[in-house]
Structures are given as structure tokens and as C-alpha cells.
From TrEMBL:
GO terms for molecular function: phosphotransferase activity, for other substituted phosphate groups. It is a multi-pass membrane protein. The chain crosses the membrane at residues 21-40, 46-64, 84-103, 109-126, 273-299. Pfam families: Bac_transf. It is an enzyme of class 2 (transferase). Coiled coil: none annotated. It comes from Candidatus Accumulibacter cognatus. It is found in: Membrane. Residues 271-454 form the Bacterial sugar transferase domain. This is Putative sugar transferase EpsL. InterPro entries: Bact_transf (IPR003362), EPS_sugar_tfrase (IPR017475), Sugar_tfrase_EpsB_2 (IPR017464).
Amino acid sequence: MIKVFNHWFHRKTVAQVAVDLMFPVACVVLAAMWIGHGAPLALERVAFYAVIFALTMIILNAWLGIYQRVHSRTREETQARAVLSLYLAIPLAYLVFALLSVAEVDRGFMLLSGLAALFATLSRRVHLAHSRTSSLLSHRVLVLGVGEEAENVGRVLHKSDPDIHIVGFYPSVNDTEIVVPAQVILSQDRSLSDTAHALRVDEIIVAVRERRGGSLPLRELLDCKLSGVRVLDLASYFERALGQIRLDSLRVGWLIFGEGFRQSWRRTTIKRLFDIVVAFLMLLLATPVMLLAAILIVLEDGFPIFYRQERVGLDGRLFKIIKFRSMRNDAESDGKPRWAMVDDDRVTRVGRVLRKLRIDELPQLYNVLTGDMSLVGPRPERPYFVDQLTRDIPFFAVRHSVKPGLTGWAQVSYPYGATIDDAVQKLQYDLYYVKNHSLFLDVVVLFETVGVVLTGKGAR
């Protein structure tokens, strides 16, 4: 994993972006040099247009979710995204290279060379996604512990990252219950440090619930760290690998003494300026779409056009959220709040389309301009559900230490859901955002939100 401005990127994602940048540029420049037959060419101009083309494709791929950490994606979904990326690359390539004003170079041949590079890159990506992990990319992990927490981390790692290879589980002194299968438990004939070196371990994950009374081999863990083996606790590992802070591995001390959760006036000011500028521009661009949505709502179900509802915001303060009305007027005629469901029968036909395309959320740009919300942050909940979730879920109130958002890290990382368990899963992503939020992460979330809208997936 590589950390960029407090946000963790998978090393495979970084490698994909690097290849997507360098490979098309190299192919186009080499094609230009070959066509020129040694004649003097403005290679810097050729390279400039090639970089523009490659960066455009990287942005497009980000919007399509190709770089997103989605581990449950099927083979068909991966192939469909790669094919769509290639189809969209053709008109983009024509647009970029049509601007190329280098008379000595055959623009058509350069276009074909760039598209060929993209096709080879995307084909290779689809092949790698469904072949065995390369030994160069494989990450060897040893789990310290054999109890319930160790079994949980093993299950999550197998499910979340195909590049992870768990070499085994090493028992700790105070393991009173053995949950992991016997065949994956490592022998204690050798010390932890000797075992880690013999198995060429890259990382040790400490999955031990009780850490007092000498339960951890601290000296051996220090020897492993000094010899280059990374040592992480559960909370830190899940934060880095999954982009979430898992509640089942979280301790109050980790929140208090760990890095992150910084709220400074400088960060708040920069975020507020970014929100105002981007929200104003989005509001201008979305005005025609919003007018059309308003007309369709009135034609199908009459007035009112907007739906105002009380939500919980920063520091638990209440505010009125504004959305396009997507449900019938009698949606909650009994006065009892209900979770919105995937196929909710209270949603109108126009409302279903508005929800699918996230158009119903556009009026919340007004909430962003007034300062009640931010563009990116945890989604605001109704007071009724906040009271319930705060009682049932530990650390739920932590999400209110930042402004709620029009979109969020949980919305682009977790599929749609409207249950207590879904609220727990979303909270784990919200905690990651609260801990690591920055302008860079906001931009990442906004890009991925476009991909969620284009593919019609993601949480609300």
C-alpha cells in the first residue's frame, strides 16, 4: 500500500495508473520517431499531446471505476468496463490528435498506435484480473493469533485482496481458544522472528484480543520490524487495506493516540472554499436538468416539488435537508419513519429515475452553499435513526465531527443498503473518512461518485 495525502492506495492501483500513463505515451512517441525516418520532429509537442491523451484516459478509467478497490466484481463486470473504456477512447483519441499540428507526422498512424497501446493495456488488465496472482505482486502475511479475531482477519483478507497470501497463523501466549483450522497453525518450535524470516513474510498482523500480561512477544516483534517486516495491529491494517476502520478491531486508545482525526482551521477553510466554488459551478451546470426534473415531478404527482426533512449535521446540530421529491405525498402518512429500500413501492416512476441518476440529490447543493453540508462527508441521517444507531452501534457519533456530505467515502465504497448491519458497514467507511479526510480525498470521492452514477451502483 502507498499513502498519498493521508489516503491509502493499493500498489496495484498505482501500477495500473503508471502503466496507463507511460505505455500510450511511449507508443505514440516511438511511432512518431519511426514515421519521421530520422527527420527533425517536434517530439516535445508529440509527447505533450500523448500525455494529454493518456491523462484523459486515466480520468475516464477513474470515472468508470477501473481503479476502484472493488473485490466482489465479476469477470463480466471487469470485461464490460474495459471494453467500454476502449470504445470511449476512440472518440477521445480523435479529438486529441485532431488538434496535433505537426505536419511531418501521420496523425492517423499515431492515433492507431495510441489505441493499440490502450487495447493491449486493457486486455492485459482483464487477463491479470482472472489469472493467478503474480509472485511479484503477491504479499506474504503472517497472522499472530489463532482465536476469533485471527479467524476474522483471515476471512476478510481472503475475501478482500487476491494478492494476499497468508502463510499461516502463529499462536500467542494467551490464546485460550483456537478458532482457525489446525492445518494453517504454524509450529512454535521456532520463534516468531525465525518463522517470519524462514517464510519470507512481508507483514505481520497482530490479531490478539488480550495484550496484557506478556501476551505479545514484543522483543520478537521488534526484531521483525527492525529486519524489514512490517508489524500492524488489526485496526491499522484494515484501514490501510480496505479503506475502512472496522469496529470489531477498534479500541478507544487507538482513536485517541493514533494519527488522524485532525480538525484545523486551515483544513476547514480550504474545504469550505472548495465546497463553495464547486457547488456554485455544479449548480449552474445542473440548472437545466433540475428544471426538467421539477416539471416531470409536477406532471406525474403534482406539488410539492421539493422535499424538506430534518437531518443531523455537524456536532449533532439539526438542519433541513432539501431534495427533489421522489416519493408519493402519502409516503409516511402514518407518521412513522422508515428506512428507504432498494425497490421501495413509495417511489414514483419519475422518482425512480431521479434516484438512479442521483438527480434527486442536486438541490442539496443549496445546503452546501449555506454551510449545513459539504460536498463530501458522511451522509446525514434523520434524528430518529441517529438515536437508534447511536444506542446500537459504538462510535456512531464520531461521524458527526465533520459536516455531512452530498456524497461520501461510504457511498462510493459500499453497495446500497438500508439495515442496521448496512449502517455498521457504512460507519466503518465514514470513520476512515473522518480520520483521513483531506482535499485530495474529497477529489477522489467526487471522481468515484461520477463512476457510481454512470454505472448505476453504490449506496445512497
